[in-house]
Amino acid sequence: MPPSAAPDGDSTKVWVRRILREVLAGREDPEGFFALCLSVLGHQETRSQYPSHIEPLRAANSSMHSVLTSIYKEYFSKTEDDELELALALSLVETKDYELSAPVHEPQLKQPGGRRNESGSVWPTSEFQTQRRSPIQPAEAASGTRNNSPQTGPSPKVCSPRTAVEPEHNADAWTPAKARSASCHQVMEAGDVDQSEKPKRPKKRRQRRKCAAQQVVGLPRAPSAAAPVLLWFRRDLRLSDNPALVSALKVGAPVIPIFIWSPEEEEGPGVTVAMGGACKYWLHQALSCLCSSLENIGSHLVFLKSETRGSEGGASLRALQGLAKATGARTVVANALYEPWLKGRDDAVAAALQKSGVECEMFHSYCLRDPYSVSTEGVGLRGIGSVSHFMSCCRQNPGAALGAPLDPPTTLPVPAHWPPGVSLETLGLARMPKRKDGTTIDWAANIRKSWDFSEGGAHARLEAFLHDGVYRYEKESGRADAPNTSCVSPYLHFGQLSPRWLLWDAKGARCRPPKFQRKLAWRDLAYWQLTLFPDLPWESLRPPYKALRWSTDRRHLEAWQRGRTGYPLVDAAMRQLWLTGWMNNYMRHVVASFLIAYLHLPWQEGYRWFQDTLVDADVAIDAMMWQNGGMCGLDHWNFVMHPVDAAMTCDPCGQYVRKWCPELSGLPDELIHKPWRCPTSLLRRAGVVFGQTYPERIVTDLEERRSQSLQDVALVRKEFGQYVDKRSGCDLVPLPPRLVSEALGSSHLDGGVATGGKQFLLPVITRMEFKHQQEDPDADAASNPYNAVLKGYVSRKRDETIAFLNERDFTASVMHEGAQRRERMESDQRRLEGLPRGPAPRGRVRRTPTAKDRFSVVPGGAVASLR
Ligand SMILES: Cc1cc2nc3c(=O)[nH]c(=O)nc-3n(C[C@H](O)[C@H](O)[C@H](O)COP(=O)(O)OP(=O)(O)OC[C@H]3O[C@@H](n4cnc5c(N)ncnc54)[C@H](O)[C@@H]3O)c2cc1C
What we know:
Strand order of the largest sheet: 5-4-3-6-7
Structural class: mainly alpha
Shape: globular
CATH topology of the domain at 543-700: DNA Cyclobutane Dipyrimidine Photolyase, subunit A, domain 3
Bound molecules: flavin-adenine dinucleotide
Helix content: 40-55%
CATH superfamily of the domain at 543-700: DNA Cyclobutane Dipyrimidine Photolyase, subunit A, domain 3
């Protein structure tokens, strides 16, 4: 019996006993059993009934009974505070009533009082917050081509709210000579700017900030001829909480901030699409804002572009050596990056500079935990890939304390001579294509309207979230029709916001959101995985799945990319991505499930499209998520999102679809996610013509597509039996050398162990439905008791509600259409026969539902509570 069919009464007992037998036979994990109970019985019932369900085991198999009991106890004993503790343990902040210790390796700005201000942010509210967002042009979304986007004028202010100057102009107008003459003047002005911002900052905070700044920035403001420090900005485009910047100041010499654009080095050895179009555009704007911020404190950002590829030593190294020679710099400081190829580059740069007598220091700040310091020692490898396993590793092997965020400096000492650089435009990051007639195709117009690219914008977003969305985050973060998540991912990616700052502010928020804090653990997990599997962005981790029968249908891929699949929820999300460079996590799951489980296209296609179009495209996170979604990662998603029914969770009234697919806006709530179910009369009234105003569905039999996908997986798992664990039925993944060393008790930091070329295989989390399908490879998806299509994403109970509503809506629509047709025929007949019009139909005609309507008949009121 499928789990969804066993919600209560005696059948529940039977069902639980059946799954318990699976556990005893070793075919199901105890944790998996508990998760299934939660999913099928729901939270309350599991809490009350679970102990009695497992009671018979107490005598028969006491050890299993105690394992199952401890899982239960651990789960239900968790309070919000425990969750918070987990997050804190991850962050390794040594707290005592929020008095933070100094970091071990990092320079620390002492903060009198030690405690952050209530609001937790030093940034003035940006215009972005108050300025109404210009509506995205839906027509453009529907046309689906970046190339056809109408050209718009210059963007509204996208630079730091401190500067009222167009960033591009600043960058253009900059010359070293101007910098020298401007810097002292600007230092004075920086003070003025601070004054003007006074009312927006809490007073206490302001005073502390001044003290802190004076401690570190008690440096000469006049140009100095001393050997300068090169401050190498990469993905840390901020002034606040920037350890490399503070360390540069501590040297007590002039600081030369630089940025080197070297796309070949970013890309790494495989196809990473590390810098897609949207990301490059963001980078351009963020650099422009950083440049303005530096100018505000009397400094300047020197841009350098890498020379021709392939010449000896690497582009960044050559640029740094040239700069060191030209300026006499003896020190280079930067914040570390963790992509293996970038770390390799940085190690080589540091070693080569060292040889020529230049010190190069890297600081940790991009993640909460340095991924190279994470170890599985004391935890083992079971459950690897899940965030709880990762957090256990962090707890078991704590690293350096995270410390408190650092305040931004108010001035930077300038050198006597600025080295020459190129203009920001020369880097070509925001270059727009041209039409044949010479006009520019401004595909980023809507991205510009949607974001404030400055560091101030990052803090404003976070602050806005912590005042509002965070209160809905725990339960409603999946909603696509409401701003319930933080939207800080691009700022985190480009380092305009440090994760430490984010964690600190989240902890300080009135509503302490454990789920939100755990998200930072996901981010760190992704970087850890990338350090373990450097080919994560292009090579499937589970060998058999490379041989899967993936589709090569380019029309399907293009329809998915352009938001023209005929499934409104998928289309709305893909259009939002195209126009704004972002969509929330839930929608990313929906579109990824659709690409993989229903279109059978390889995950790499999804990954590459995301990398090109997301403004937060992050090689580590994107690759980990797509590998998992594509069934090849360490952590199989144990669910597949249904392209229609998932809307019950994320867009129950259809507002999200109405926004991004305006051609469907006239459809009623119940049918907007499945327009093909609409009676013709309703479609006509709403102006929907399939194939003209809105695309036909590119695949129609979803069940059949899913079954095919399952059968294909069963086939390759059978074919590559050496990669399936006979006992547990789990997939086996080749272990990377670092994990082998740890498993054999030797730290990778000590050099690891030699495996003599032997490959070690590790059983990893595997979807139950795959294990079951193995027993009957040709069975269809519907008959698989572990069918992973979680329609509402929340619980099986909600799925049943959805099934009920689907049935009801469909029946009602058919009856309604039939009645209308009969009435029309009768009245035509009377007219033809010259008879007077018949009596008005008795009873109430079914009115077209509107967005304001509530569902009237809902079992248990489940859907009503969604609204
Ligand atoms: C197929 C797929 C691809 C993705 N690609 C990316 C990507 O390229 N870049 C990216 O930053 N996120 C990616 N994510 C993760 C997640 O969707 C985004 O981080 C999130 O939607 C960003 O919105 P937010 O800032 O409002 O998130 P919030 O929910 O407010 O979370 C706060 C921060 O936590 C981190 N975070 C949240 N969820 C995850 C997650 N699942 N994994 C790792 N970190 C997480 C992000 O840095 C995020 O900004 C992907 C998810 C999926 C399913």
